[in-house]
Amino acid sequence: MTVQDTAGPAGRADARRNRALVLAAAQRALAERGTAVSLAEVARRAGVGAGTVHRHFPTKTDLVEAVMQQRVDRLAALAAEQLAAPDPGTAFFTLCRHVVLTTPANRDLCDLVQSDDGWPRALLREAGERFHRALAALLAAAQRHGAVRLDVTVTDVLDLFTGCVAIQRQRAGSPTLAPAAALILDALRATPPDVTEPGRTARDETAVRDETDAVHCPVCGATVHRSGTGRPARYCSPACRQKAHRRRHP
Q: What pLDDT score was predicted for residue 107?
């Protein structure tokens, strides 16, 4: 057995470890400094030699594409994992929030992907297709669950991502969604059944039945205080009204 054969498995393990270190360092560096960061800087952050970086990624373009592929693959894996969630609607909107909150940190990378300068996109395109398939499956599950409008397509969701990310960039570093971005994502939700859509026959409001004439709050059982004028109150407080709404439209 030659020395090369003996060192083969260990060498491959080291190569995989070094590649992972480089990708992790590149992800952080590109998020902080954009595509202007040098391969030497990435090597320094990864704790490896510049030659190691060049062996895995001969050019910065190769490195950028690999970083983007890794990110999109992680999103695809997250979408696939959410398919096993007991509540597909909550899982779908959790993924949407994650995409909008984490993408602004990769602004330069996204701008590069959207440009038309001819740089390699084969790996990224394959990763994108995997993400689209996983997103489509999660969207369909959420629609079957009644959480997302039936007329929404994957293309619509991706378009909304673009708009939400642009809005979220104005709140760089914020751990919460910008109010406008939250409103846009809420537009994906199925119309509550007690709101009549244009062209749709109003449903029979007698489904509420006893709540209108109830003396006690149907949520907590407390006495409902009613005024002598206006629409009779159904609940003892706005909090209970909100809880009832959430139960009807989870």
A: 54
